[in-house]
Amino acid sequence: MSRSTKVAGAASIATVVLLYAIIEHGRTLRANQALRELPKTACAVLRIDAVELADSQSARALFDWLVPAERLSEIEARCGLAPLAALRDATVWVGGPEGEPFQSVGLLLRGRTADAETIAQCYRSLVEARGSAIDRIATPMGPLLRSRDGASALAQVDDYTVVTGSRETVAEVMAVRRGAAPSLVEAAAFRDIWSRVAVGAAVAGVFVAPPRWQSAFERIGTLGDQASVLTGVKSLGLTTRAKIPTALEVMIDVNDAETARRNAALMSAWSESPPETVEPYLVDLARSAQIEVDGRRITVTLDVSGLPKRL
What is the C-alpha separation between 41 and 47, in angstroms, rounded? Predict the structure, then answer.
């Protein structure tokens, strides 16, 4: 092999590696953009990447289970938009002040084939269809669309992005954009688990448990007369990726390694013999569980291919 051939081969490999690094860096930036746009008061975030969704069987199964087909059909009929084709991504979050961490719900929509003005017009059509009307008002954060019944508001973040929710929720996001309020990227606990679940994921979610609500979440995780599988939970993360066709991966961080081992053992016992009252498709989901423990983290991998569609 001549020297020139070797050089050309090395250059080709280097080019491929560089392109891969650029693509992965772009995916990381896109995934982390949500944390830079959302308020630090958020305790739960779910992001759907419509671009990645097309290539992920597990994400599509989860999406079809979570989102009613009737709702998508209504948007298409009233707005002339196919939501998954029109949007690049959608991010929903729950947050609030320390004493009321679940006070507000917000939705950030980023267009792909539809720009912010088109999405705003769709919002207007949907609000009017439920019998309300839209007022356009001037605010310190810029123009705002608000339903006359006060149920929701919408503001344009940039040429392709809008935020909707209560007026207070929208105002908080716009304050983050102006640098007048801290963003979620400043929350170290949230940022750590988000970096593990969001990059390259079609569907990614993170929940960081507010300390004062610890006992409430432990009660939610109680299975029959057993101890709670959510004892000591600090955060939850979920992710779907195209490389694992039918899998949903759930990461659970708890206080310590001993608690992780105990919770994992309870999960394993329940998944092997779920109660008879559980829906058949959830029984199949539970029995598909593969549970691993690494330090204080429990990772549960579930086969979501059998989830039913919501009509």
Answer: 17
